[in-house]
Design goal:
By secondary structure, the chain is mainly alpha-helical. It is 69% helix and 0% strand. The chain is globular and about 75 Å long. It starts with a helix and ends with a helix. Keywords: DNA-binding.
Length: 414
């Protein structure tokens, strides 16, 4: 019998072992009793959302989810030969004048040292901070050309500079490249995101930073996470948690590992990873790290916010809503992209908890800012919210929200 066909009988067995009638179970899950009955009889398929909730309520530790969610092919998390590297392929496609080539040319041919980069670096550093702020309120496709140009420009300055100036220029170029990769992912281009992330690691290594390459693993894990590859996400995140790495990188990696575990309902390992992330990110070393700050600068307690995120994937929407309510209130008003990212997850948690009207109020406000900050990753939660709300078609709030939802999601189907 296929995994999908085994779901119904297994759900019935676990429900009965828990001493629950179908009526009691449907009330607890906020799902229609008739729908659950058809699922148990194999007449209807269970959605991943339903599987998560059943799994969490019956403490099945991912057993029911695995019968519904098809395991993704595990990402290749080992280093590949240069001719096969997805990063190098990405570079050829993304970089018309690769920054790596500029650096190699400058170092190998021994360009005449120039002090030109020295007075310009503070200006480029200010531009980097401004572009990060703009990323919170501007469409990624608008910023990408400028980010690509700035990355190449700073890398070019490094190639034509004395060693004293070259190192900080390379490190700044690496941060430009890393942020460019994030904007590429937000624009829906995972291949370009990986290419720029690899470029960032190469620039950092050339500048003497042995750590950003490990953070690149965390960024790669985000690509696999949004691709639904839980095993690949966990494997990549674990590679970025060796003891010699800075606490902030290890903490961010532990958060990503937790999200990977949550995708398959592994609550025990998820919570362990979150505890590890909290400990690392709260350490004095993590708080006094190098500038610019690696990772988010707008979430005051990343471990707490990620806990709320993971609780939703673990099928515990009420607990998720409580955490996300608290943490979202702490986000700065100008951080529109961050507010949308966690706000839609918050709306999803409230909808899954049966608080449909409240979910619609949250979503309506956020949908108004989405044209300014379109995001392929945020859209994944908007689609989940639309599916969740489709169970409540009789709700006037849901009907009123549908046109706005459709307008935001329409471009993704075009």
């Amino acid at each position: 019998m296929s995994a999908a066909l085994r779901f119904g009988p297994e759900l019935r067995r676990l429900r009965q072992e828990a001493g629950l009638t179908l009526t009691e179970f449907s009330v607890a899950l906020n799902y229609d009793k008739g729908h659950l009955s058809k699922v148990e009889r194999g007449e209807r398929s269970a959605s991943p959302e339903l599987a998560r909730r059943c799994d969490a309520f019956l403490s099945a530790n991912g057993q029911l989810q695995r019968l519904v969610i098809r395991p993704e092919t595990r990402s290749d998390t080992t280093e590949t030969p240069a001719t096969q590297s997805p990063w190098l392929v990405g570079r050829r496609e993304v970089l018309a004048a690769g920054t790596g080539a500029l650096i190699d040319l400058g170092l190998k041919l021994g360009c005449q040292p120039s002090a030109a980069a020295s007075p310009l670096l503070p200006s480029f550093r200010e531009q980097f901070d401004q572009l990060r702020k703009l990323g919170q309120s501007t469409a990624p496709k608008v910023l990408l050309p400028l980010l690509e140009t700035q990355t190449r420009t700073v890398a070019g300055l490094a190639a034509d500079s004395p060693a004293a100036t070259r190192t900080p220029a390379l490190l700044l170029a690496s941060r430009f490249a890393e942020f460019t990769g994030w904007m590429a992912q937000e624009a829906g281009d995972s291949g370009a995101a990986l290419g720029w992330t690899g470029e960032a690691a190469e620039l950092a290594r050339a500048g003497g930073d042995p750590y950003l390459g490990s953070y690149a693993l965390v960024r790669r894990a985000l690509v696999t996470f949004y691709g639904g590859d839980a095993a690949g996400t966990v494997a990549l995140a674990r590679r970025a948690q060796s003891d010699e790495l800075p606490p902030r990188i290890r903490g961010l990696a532990a958060q990503r590992e937790a999200q990977g575990h949550a995708l398959v309902g592994d609550e025990r390992d998820c919570l362990r990873s979150l505890d590890r992330a909290r400990e690392l990110l709260d350490s004095d070393d993590a708080r006094s790290g190098a500038e610019p700050v690696i990772g988010t600068t707008h979430v005051s307690d990343p471990a707490a916010m990620t806990t709320g995120w993971c609780l939703q994937d673990l099928g515990r929407p009420k607990a998720a809503a409580e955490v996300l309510d608290r943490e979202c209130r702490r986000l700065p008003p100008h951080a529109l992209r961050t507010r949308a990212r966690y706000g839609f997850r918050r709306a999803l948690a409230h909808a899954a908890s049966g608080e449909v009207d409240h979910a619609c109020v949250i979503a309506e406000e956020l949908l108004g800012v989405m044209p300014a900050v379109p995001s392929a990753t945020v859209n994944s939660d908007i689609r989940r919210l639309a599916r969740e709300l489709s169970r409540f078609r009789s709700s006037r709030a849901v009907r009123d929200l549908q046109p706005s939802l459709a307008r935001v999601l329409a471009p993704t189907h075009g």
